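We were asked to recover a plausible sequence for a given structure. The inputs and outputs are reproduced exactly as logged, with field labels preserved.

PROBLEM: sequence recovery
POSITIONS: 388
GIVEN STRUCTURE:
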């Protein structure tokens, strides 16, 4: 576990310093196209704005929204410095509203699934003691809330945020995973023309014009898991299997623990084959695998590692099952903590349409660490043609 901590600190160190500083970054238009996916902190909003309640004439906001991600924070608002708050999120692709007001916590989920990759017009508004969500001009969700402990006349400021929350996540009635791979455009926020404030860690990234399901690696960045958090061994005969579907080139994965490092890189060969490089610290070898189908099966047995039932690397001195259970770093897209080695084996470029560990789909939003350049749930459709 000490090895895991050292690598995580190495990867996150510069970002944590910037987050602690909370230096004000640039301001961006509230009506432009905003990519919510690429940020360092899970819960900190990508951007936020505030205004005096006396300037508000309409508690109504609307914007276009597109995602393939089933879960994450979309839109947040609060008054009284977070004493009364509201958050719109997705769970299983379905809109969910949670509200905290005085002594009341409310969580309501309903309406159509929004994670179909199409643009949807969302509108949120207050109607007296009700909060209404419309999708494509049709009412999908209505939440009523009343507390005798709350005064109707409000003064002070209202705060809005995208892609996160401004209050502690412990206040949530129904916890969720906040990261969301989504885009927003054409936003109108209350009756304000205020720009959004970002912090110095934010790097604006464009939204793909057309998307398909998958996790996109642009040739920069990795997604790293602790194997002890992943599905474990069922039977020794079957071993532990990682299945990857998609179209890619570069370092597919690496497996590391104290004194051990294994790298699997898939490099473009001719149109019919791809070269698979297998590397250990003390040596490496390569073997050609058929280019089709675009599937890679990596099987971990007690003393060996197998790729597509063709390449087998044996190490009798190592017990991979025990190492997996205790905790190794399973990294997709490169080699963490060793930039020079990552460059030498080529960072991953392409779309991983699906990753399965022991038959279970792996969500990159659940990673121990994920670089901001990696898109968890969407790939650009044009990138597929470049790799075929």
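RECOVERED SEQUENCE:
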């Amino acid at each position: 576990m000490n090895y895991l901590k050292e690598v995580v600190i190495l990867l996150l160190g510069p970002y944590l310093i910037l987050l602690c500083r909370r230096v004000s970054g640039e301001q961006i238009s509230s009506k432009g196209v905003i990519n919510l996916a690429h940020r360092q902190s899970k819960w900190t909003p990508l951007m936020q704005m505030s205004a005096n309640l006396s300037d508000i004439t309409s508690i109504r906001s609307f914007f276009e929204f597109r995602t393939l991600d089933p879960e994450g924070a979309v839109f947040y608002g609060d008054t009284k410095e977070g004493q009364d708050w509201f958050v719109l999120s997705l769970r299983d692709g379905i809109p969910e509203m949670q509200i905290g007001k005085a002594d009341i916590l409310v969580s309501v989920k309903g309406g159509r699934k929004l994670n179909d990759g199409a643009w949807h017009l969302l509108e949120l508004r207050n109607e007296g003691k009700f909060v209404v969500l419309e999708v494509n001009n049709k009412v999908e969700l209505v939440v009523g809330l009343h507390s005798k402990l709350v005064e109707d006349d409000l003064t002070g400021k209202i705060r809005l945020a995208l892609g996160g929350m401004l209050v502690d996540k412990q206040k949530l009635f129904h916890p969720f995973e906040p990261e969301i791979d989504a885009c927003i455009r054409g936003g109108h926020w209350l009756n304000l023309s205020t720009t959004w404030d970002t912090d110095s860690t934010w790097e604006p990234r464009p939204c793909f014009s057309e998307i398909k399901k998958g996790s996109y690696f642009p040739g920069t960045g990795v997604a790293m898991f602790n194997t002890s958090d992943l599905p474990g061994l069922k039977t020794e005969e079957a071993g532990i299997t990682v299945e990857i579907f998609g179209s890619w080139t570069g370092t597919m994965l690496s497996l590391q623990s104290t004194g051990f490092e294994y790298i699997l890189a898939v490099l473009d060969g001719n149109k019919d084959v791809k070269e698979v490089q297998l590397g250990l610290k003390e040596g490496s070898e390569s073997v050609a695998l058929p280019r089709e189908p675009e599937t890679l099966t990596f099987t971990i047995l007690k003393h060996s590692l197998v790729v597509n039932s063709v390449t087998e690397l044996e190490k009798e001195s190592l017990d991979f099952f025990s190492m997996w259970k205790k905790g190794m770093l399973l990294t997709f897209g490169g080699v963490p903590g060793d930039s020079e080695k990552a460059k030498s084996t080529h960072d991953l470029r392409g779309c991983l349409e699906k990753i399965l560990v022991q038959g279970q789909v792996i969500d990159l939003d659940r990673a121990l660490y994920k670089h901001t350049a990696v898109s968890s749930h969407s790939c650009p459709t044009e990138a597929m043609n470049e790799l075929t």
